[in-house]
Write a structure and sequence with these properties.
- This is YcxB-like protein domain-containing protein.
- Keywords: Membrane, Transmembrane, Transmembrane helix.
- Helix 1 runs antiparallel to helix 2.
- It is built from four helices and eight strands, in the order E-H-H-H-E-E-E-E-E-E-H-E.
- The chain is of the alpha+beta class.
- It has two domains: 87 residues, Pleckstrin-homology domain (PH domain)/Phosphotyrosine-binding domain (PTB) (PH-domain like), CATH 2.30.29.30; 64 residues, no CATH class.
- A hairpin with a 6-residue loop joins strand 6 and strand 7.
Length: 177
């Protein structure tokens, strides 16, 4: 098999999408919201600067804004994430929304695509590959230790055999359990 032309794309079933949302996208989405709120805080702090004010008064006034932000930003982030993922859970009933979740495998990267965003991993980040009766698991060597799980059931119509052969030959040994 030539590795320069290797390319596979898998649509995901509902169980795989729920696992992805739980394992990947909640953390990713929380980081994005925290980043957005931090930018808002910086804008509020620096737009508050008035050249006529005393510098010491400006620091004290903004210190209260920062303390207020630090006390309540986790509550705000968790509330936004909870509402967003409840909405996503309701949207999973629609086939058009489900089809937007995909795994793509090329000779150089693993891509995970969704309406909430996407990310890629390089093949050298694969720590372990395990094939079970129902699932094919790829353990990602990362700070969060992600696991990509792909259903191997016949009704999923994945080209799983081709993916397993590629990983076994070019990436790492596939443990069969």
């Amino acid at each position: 098999m030539g590795t320069s032309t290797f390319s596979l794309e898998f649509d995901l079933n509902i169980a795989e999408i729920r696992n992805l949302n739980k394992m990947y996208f909640k953390d990713l989405y929380k980081k994005r919201i925290m980043f957005f709120l931090a930018i808002i805080l910086l804008v509020i702090v620096f737009l508050d600067w008035d050249n006529n004010d005393d510098f010491f008064q400006w620091i004290i006034r903004n210190l209260f804004s920062v303390i207020f932000f630090l006390f309540f930003h986790y509550l705000i982030v968790n509330a936004i994430c909870k509402v967003t993922f409840r909405l996503v859970k309701k949207l999973l009933k629609f086939e058009g929304f489900v089809r937007r979740y995909k795994f793509s495998f090329t000779n150089s990267v693993i891509g995970v695509h969704s309406p909430l965003g996407g990310f890629t991993h390089r093949w050298c980040q694969i720590e372990k590959a395990i094939l079970t009766k129902d699932l094919f698991l790829l353990y990602i060597r990362d700070r969060n230790g992600y696991i990509i799980s792909i259903s191997t059931k016949d009704n999923c119509d994945h080209k799983i055999a081709e993916l397993i052969a590629f990983i076994d030959c070019n990436v790492t040994h596939v443990e069969r359990i």
